[in-house]
Specification:
The protein is mostly helical and about 100 residues long. The protein contains one helix and no strands. The mean pLDDT is about 85.
Length: about 100
């Protein structure tokens, strides 16, 4: 019986040690998950914060870009009609 009691005590000791290791691993995993979450909150928060800060400037330059595109399209339309008019005049003159 003494041998069985010794083995049982050794098994109990190993089980407690294993339990301590598992508890420690789980605690480390929880902290790791928390800090990973905070890392992404910080990154995404800074991205949205930067956009919010620069939003008036972005809107201003977007409007300027859109106005420039509209002017270029109007100019292209005018240039296209000028070349058509020039071709028509050349045909009328006979050249």
């Amino acid at each position: 019986m003494d041998l069985n009691a010794q083995k049982l005590d050794e098994l109990l000791e190993l089980t407690r040690e294993n339990n301590d290791i598992l508890v420690s691993m789980r605690r480390t995993q929880r902290w790791s998950s928390f800090f990973s979450f905070m890392y992404w909150v910080l990154i995404l928060g800074s991205i949205f914060g930067t956009y919010y800060y620069f939003q008036p400037t972005i809107i201003k330059y977007t409007k300027i870009l859109q106005t420039s595109v509209d002017v270029l399209q109007k100019f292209e339309g005018t240039t296209g009609s000028v070349t058509k008019d020039a071709q028509t005049i050349k045909k009328l003159i006979g050249k």
